[in-house]
Amino acid sequence: MSVTGNAQTATGASASKSEGSLASRGVVITYLGLLVLIPLAAVVWQSTQDGIGGFVRAVTNPQALAALRLTFLASLVVVAINVVAGTIIAWVLVRDSFRGKAIVNSIIDLPFALPTIVASLTLLALYGPKSPLGLNIAYTKASVGMALLFVTLPFVIRAVQPVLLELDRDMEEAAASLGASGFATFRRIILPTLTPAILSGAALGFARSVGEFGSVVLLTGNQPFKTQVASVYIFGQVESGETSSAAAVSVVLLVVSLALLFGLSLINRWGTHHDS
Amino acid sequence: MTARIAFRVFALGYLALLLVFPVCIIFARAFGEGLGAVWQAVIDPEALHALWMTLLIASIAVAANTVFGIICATVLVRHDFRGKSVLNAILDLPLAISPVVVGLSLLIIYGRTSPIGVWLAEMGVRIIFSTPGMILATIFISLPFVVREVVPVMREIGTEQEQAASTLGASAFQTFWMVTLPAIRPGVAYGIVLTMARAIGEFGAVSVVSGQISGITETMTIYVSSSFERFDLVGCYSAAVVLALIAIGTLLLTNLTGPKEEY
Amino acid sequence: MGITARRVSKRFGDFVALDDVSVEAPTGSLTALLGPSGSGKSTLLRVIAGLERPDSGQIFISDEEKTDFPPQKRGVGFVFQHYAAFKHMTVFENVAFGLKIRKHPKDAIRQRVRELLELVQLEGFAGRYPAQLSGGQRQRMALARALAVEPDVLLLDEPFGALDARVRQELRAWLRRLHEDIHVTTILVTHDQEEAMELADNIVLMNHGKIEQVGGPQDLYEQPANEFVMGFIGPVNRLGDTYVRPHDIEIQLNSNGTTSEAMVDHLVYLGFEVRVDLALKDGRRLWAQVTREDARQLNLEPGKPVHVRMVHSKVFGKTTADSLPNP
């Protein structure tokens, strides 16, 4: 099970053991092997080039730890905000109606379409030193949060929208007729159905924000120990030629990504077992 | 009733403050010096070269990932084998990995310190600090989109049309070309739009791999960053505006090609 | 000649779809593969077409062995239950597909497609897309498409299963007429015994991957080989080991020594016929089918005591013309 979709064979597959299908599988394995698996394996390999001791040193040195801590904390805070804000926005998009709703719905995808470096620039323009609003949060920890909020905005919203659309209104009406207030209905009936979707969107958002680079680069000042996130730290290590150290910290991020993907597949499986 | 209004205000306000106003400011800042200045910045040779690099790299990445995506979707939907969930998991990786790590991985394999890098250097082939490396990085990070979009479409059309074609005498290739491909076209189109957008917007991975040699290995996104660092603000904002316009164009295209959504 | 399947077996995992099945469809005949879901009839059809590979057995089409041939090379025309229309092509392009593959000249194609569209009564629809056609029209298009390349055999997989009852009736009659005109060896898969009885020269009744009986409609109805065949082909009452058709139960007002006592439970008026639900003295139930006239003459009504006897019945394994078990 995965985010990409649970694909199964159609029954009655055409004569499947032909050379064509073996060639297809070969192409897929080769492409993915060369382009994805081998590079990732190379990172893992490189991270061990200074031995286990070197690995541990690379990961536990104060600057690296500070970067990792900032990254994870900021991502957690951002995920929490996204869960609430994202659910509300999804609710408004599905249940409310007003002029221009279609445009608003399209705007949600802007963080997917806009290059992250441009996002960084736009946030800097509005919330940096020359802010027309007089609001300057650039080069602060808050700026990290803001950048991450930008890039992870769509995840929870897009995960929740289809579930909300599919939701059987009958259940809510039944609850209302039994005396449940709006909030009680939401808490007891709607929220449980939405929870797998919310979690799934949150996990995807978290995975994205942990590795985020482009959007923080201009906005945060990248100050070590203060506003430097893990990806920026790794970049710095690479530029200094400390490839093994960079690889070690990368491995930490990789492990987190893999754990999240695995968690996601579990969430998906749990979510679908509610359906008939 | 007030709850509904409150939610609406919150949602619209949140989106305005986080997305809309920032993007609008860019346009304001860029055109603040006048249309002429923007035009000059856009036709600057370095900027043009960066645009060319972006389009070249993105096009190659899109082409490669489209061909791969269609083949991979076929394997996922029409074939039966163990390890399909592993395949699905690997396809998700590019979405969950930091772009800097992607760049690093290519540096490790093709850089001067690796045996492959040395061998390639002897052959006179440059991957790192050169376009091929940037292409590989871009392919990596934009890999899953076509597969993801084609799989459900392919699953929905089912195999019967293809079986019918085979009983009518069509070879496997003819069936694929005349029956399957036209049927999955919507999924392919949407996947291409998403891939293109992602490829154009890539920054972290290509930054690591390019060595940021100005004028030679800069893409538009790298140009935004480097011109900012040089305090060439007009150049920076102008390039950002071009990219923002492309992004808005992409949003329009996704509306046209994407699945007809209700919201 | 025609089509021969010899000792075909096929399993899907643990499920045995076909168990050593042999079937012959004579040239020019219309043979029905009839049976309930899971009986293996569709699987057999697909094996004949080359869309499935059997685990063992052989397939002969027009006396040539085609067991190892792919579908492209078998000379079969196949029609699917859900039409399998090429949605992105017009009706014309759909029907022309096979001819285009064989690289026939454009004029010849246009001519042939026009003939076929006339044959299936879809002239004027050439420029439309399948989505603009009704289900019945789509299926006629599918038939035209299959016939375009002049196949040796025509294979139809529950072709009317997705259609409304009325359209189904119309197309059944239409297919019968078409077959009489064209006389291509045809095999039709269906779960509808009425359809098989109406269309087929020859019925192969299958169950659980095996063949229960082969014969003409009349043979299967009047000489069923076992209780499954008897029950599948027509309505039947079961009393222990004895099986009686409802219209073989005679209702009388008076006993005549060979009858049993019964009481009318319920009457259902089915137009020309009346269904009479009866209860025997020992509590067992059965139902008889009588004409309206008979029902009126006997003055049947719920609660009325009557006498019944079986005109024919079957006990598996011997045939008798017994009376009902004694009261």
Kindly provide the name of the CATH class of chain B: Mainly Alpha
**Number of helical elements of chain B:** 13
Q: What is the third-level CATH name, the topology of chain B?
A: MetI-like fold
Q: Major β-sheet of chain B, in short?
A: none
CATH superfamily of chain B: MetI-like
Q: What class, by secondary structure content of chain C?
A: alpha+beta
User: What is the C-alpha radius of gyration of chain B, as a whole number of Å?
Assistant: 22 Å
Round the Cα radius of gyration of chain C to an integer and report it: 24 Å
> Which residues of chain C sit in consecutive blocks of at least 5 with pLDDT less than 50?
318-323
Query: Which two chains touch over the largest interface?
Result: A-B, 103 and 104 residues
Secondary structure layout:
The complex is a heterotrimer of chains A (276), B (263) and C (327).
Chain A: H1 19-47, H2 51-60, H3 62-95, H4 101-107, H5 110-113, H6 116-127, H7 141-166, H8 169-177, H9 182-210, H10 214-217, H11 230-239, H12 243-272
Chain B: H1 2-31, H2 35-43, H3 45-78, H4 84-96, H5 99-110, H6 115-122, H7 131-141, H8 145-157, H9 160-167, H10 172-201, H11 204-210, H12 220-229, H13 233-257
Chain C: E1 3-12, E2 15-25, E3 30-34, H1 41-49, E4 56-61, E5 64-65, E6 76-79, H2 91-101, H3 106-119, H4 135-148, E7 153-157, H5 165-182, E8 185-190, H6 193-199, E9 202-207, E10 210-215, H7 217-222, H8 227-233, E11 237-239, E12 242-244, E13 249-252, E14 260-270, E15 273-280, E16 285-291, H9 292-298, E17 305-310, E18 313-315, E19 318-320
Parallel strand pairs in C: 3-8, 3-9, 6-7, 7-8
Antiparallel strand pairs in C: 1-2, 1-4, 4-5, 9-10, 11-12, 12-18, 13-17, 14-15, 14-17, 15-16, 18-19
Helix pairs in contact in C: 2-3, 2-4, 3-4
Describe the structure.
- The complex is a heterotrimer of chains A (276), B (263) and C (327).
- With 276 residues, chain A is mainly alpha-helical.
- Chain A has 2 domains: 1-47; 51-275, MetI-like fold (Orthogonal Bundle), CATH 1.10.3720.10.
- In chain A, 74% of the residues lie in helices and 0% in strands.
- Chain A has helices at residues 19-47, 51-60, 62-95, 101-107, 110-113, 116-127, 141-166, 169-177, 182-210, 214-217, 230-239, 243-272.
- Chain A starts with 18 loop residues before the first helix and ends with a helix.
- Residues 1-17 of chain A have low confidence and may be disordered.
- Chain B starts with a helix and ends in a 6-residue tail after the last helix.
- Chain B is mostly helical and 263 residues long.
- Chain B has 13 helices and no strands.
- Chain B has a single domain, classed as MetI-like (MetI-like fold, Orthogonal Bundle).
- The model of chain B has no long low-confidence stretch (mean pLDDT 89).
- Chain C has 327 residues and is α+β, with helices and mostly antiparallel strands.
- Chain C has 9 helices and 19 strands.
- Chain C has helices spanning 41-49, 91-101, 106-119, 135-148, 165-182, 193-199, 217-222, 227-233, 292-298, and strands at residues 3-12, 15-25, 30-34, 56-61, 64-65, 76-79, 153-157, 185-190, 202-207, 210-215, 237-239, 242-244, 249-252, 260-270, 273-280, 285-291, 305-310, 313-315, 318-320.
- In chain C, the strands form 4 sheets. Chain C has a 6-stranded mixed β-sheet, with helices on both faces. In chain C, strands 13-17-14-15-16 form a 5-stranded antiparallel β-sheet.
- Chain C is elongated, with a radius of gyration of 24 Å.
- In chain C, 40% of the residues are buried.
- Chains in contact: A-B, A-C, B-C.
